[in-house]
């Protein structure tokens, strides 16, 4: 079946365009007329010739900023009363990312064929994540689609800023570790062998630090290929394992307890959970349905497992506060705020307060992260410098002293 691009006008006189799969151009015209669209131009999309290289793999996928901008525009248009199909068609004409434009045009076709928006977006999961699709479905079910887009926009903005701050705090120690690693490779592979040859000619008794450096250098030069291969194999094996269901559950649990950054990741994940819960509560969905949605949206398999345990506990008749307490994830202050929300029926505001509480904690931890890492880095660098000094300069000093003594004699 061939594909055709079309341009025409709908019943309101608005210019529309898109793509349709049909056997002939006449079939395209019939489909458009049945939809109330008067076609102006219908062009068949040529197939790729045999042997022709398709460059679609080089087309850039939409990044986070593209999705945030799209969500903000959809909120503004839907709040203004613009029909979804017309809003998507207008955005498709002004968006520069080709993958996102293609996704919007196919979504328009699905909507014109009778599908709902969330189901249409679910066909493009590489662009729209699970939380995004679930929140759009919430908006459709409650008739508050504009609010869903607004909540998604605010959520993605906060999540983006949190991750940006974490990356910024880890940038300096990462650069330092990379520089130290490169320096150690250069010293082991080029510098120490030169000193080893010199010490061997003098036949001097070498201290343990020098012997350790020479042995390490010799081992590195002899087995450099094996070392690189082992590192690559370990990294590949680790990435393969954490992509399995069991491995991801283990890694997501370990990430929450890593030194220094574990508490930040934990609070950021719980902030994401709380804000998503508040969004669902504002949309009027039942607690069990909200937990089912949020469990898939926290982007952490271990926390998702705990959320599923909460859902099972509530199904057995426990309160949301008791179910939250049993997970061991929440602080007493947060549990108290949940209890107030459950008693007053104001759970959405309370969960928003919980999200803001965790976000403030994350911001504070990020600000103190650099000051916590710097002393550790200084001690580590100092230790490396001390080993190099003892291993290289101490025997040089002894040789120099011996030479000066022999000269005086």
Q: SSE layout and pairings?
A:
Blueprint: E1 2-9, E2 15-22, H1 25-34, E3 38-44, H2 64-79, H3 84-94, H4 98-112, H5 117-121, H6 130-142, H7 145-202, H8 208-222, H9 224-242, H10 245-255, H11 262-282, H12 287-295, H13 301-315, H14 320-327, H15 332-344, H16 347-408
Antiparallel strand pairs: 1-2, 1-3
Helix pairs in contact: 2-3, 2-7, 3-4, 6-7, 7-8, 7-11, 7-16, 8-16, 11-12, 11-16, 12-13, 13-14, 14-15, 15-16
Could you characterize the architecture of this molecule?
- With 409 residues, the protein is mainly alpha-helical.
- The chain has three domains: 2-57; 62-128, no CATH class; 162-409, Type II secretion system (T2SS), domain F (Receptor-associated Protein).
- It contains 16 helices and three strands.
- It has helices at residues 25-34, 64-79, 84-94, 98-112, 117-121, 130-142, 145-202, 208-222, 224-242, 245-255, 262-282, 287-295, 301-315, 320-327, 332-344, 347-408; strands at 2-9, 15-22, 38-44.
- α13 runs antiparallel to α14 (320-327).
- The termini are far apart.
- Mean pLDDT is 79; it is low at 48-57.
């Amino acid at each position: 079946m061939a594909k055709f691009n079309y341009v025409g006008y709908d019943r309101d006189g608005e210019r529309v365009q898109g793509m349709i799969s049909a056997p002939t151009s006449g079939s395209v015209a019939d489909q458009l007329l049945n939809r109330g669209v008067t076609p102006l131009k219908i062009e068949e999309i040529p197939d790729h010739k045999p042997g022709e290289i398709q460059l679609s793999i080089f087309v850039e996928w939409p990044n986070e900023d593209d999705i945030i901008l799209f969500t903000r525009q959809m909120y503004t248009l839907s709040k203004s009363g613009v029909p979804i199909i017309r809003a998507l068609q207008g955005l498709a004409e002004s968006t520069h990312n080709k993958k996102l434009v293609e996704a919007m045009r196919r979504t328009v076709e699905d909507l014109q064929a009778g599908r709902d928006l969330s189901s249409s977006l679910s066909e493009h999961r590489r662009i729209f994540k699970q939380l995004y699709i679930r929140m759009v479905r919430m908006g459709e079910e409650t008739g508050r689609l504009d609010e869903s887009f607004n909540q998604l926009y605010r959520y993605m903005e906060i999540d983006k800023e949190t991750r940006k701050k974490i990356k910024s705090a880890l940038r300096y120690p990462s650069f330092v570790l990379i520089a130290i690693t490169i320096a150690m490779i250069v010293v082991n592979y080029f510098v120490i062998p030169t000193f080893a040859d010199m010490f061997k000619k003098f036949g001097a008794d070498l201290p343990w630090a020098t012997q350790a450096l020479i042995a390490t250098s010799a081992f590195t030069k002899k087995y450099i290929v094996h070392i690189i291969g082992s590192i690559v194999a370990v990294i590949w094996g680790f990435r393969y394992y954490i992509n399995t269901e069991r491995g991801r559950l283990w890694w997501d649990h370990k990430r929450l307890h890593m030194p220094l950054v574990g508490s930040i990741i934990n609070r950021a994940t719980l902030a994401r959970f709380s804000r998503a819960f508040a969004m669902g509560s504002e949309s009027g969905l039942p607690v069990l349905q909200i937990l089912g949605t949020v469990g898939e949206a926290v982007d952490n398999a271990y926390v998702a497992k705990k959320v599923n345990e909460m859902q099972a506990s509530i199904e057995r008749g426990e309160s949301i506060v008791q179910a939250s307490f049993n997970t061991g994830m929440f602080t007493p202050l947060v549990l108290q705020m949940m209890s107030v929300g459950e008693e007053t029926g104001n759970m959405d505001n309370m969960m928003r307060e919980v999200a803001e509480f965790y976000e403030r904690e994350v911001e504070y931890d990020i600000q103190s992260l650099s000051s916590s890492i710097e002393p550790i880095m200084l001690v580590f660098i100092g230790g490396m410098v001390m080993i190099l000094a003892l291993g290289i300069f101490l025997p040089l000093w002894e040789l120099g002293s011996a030479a000066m003594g022999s000269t005086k004699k």
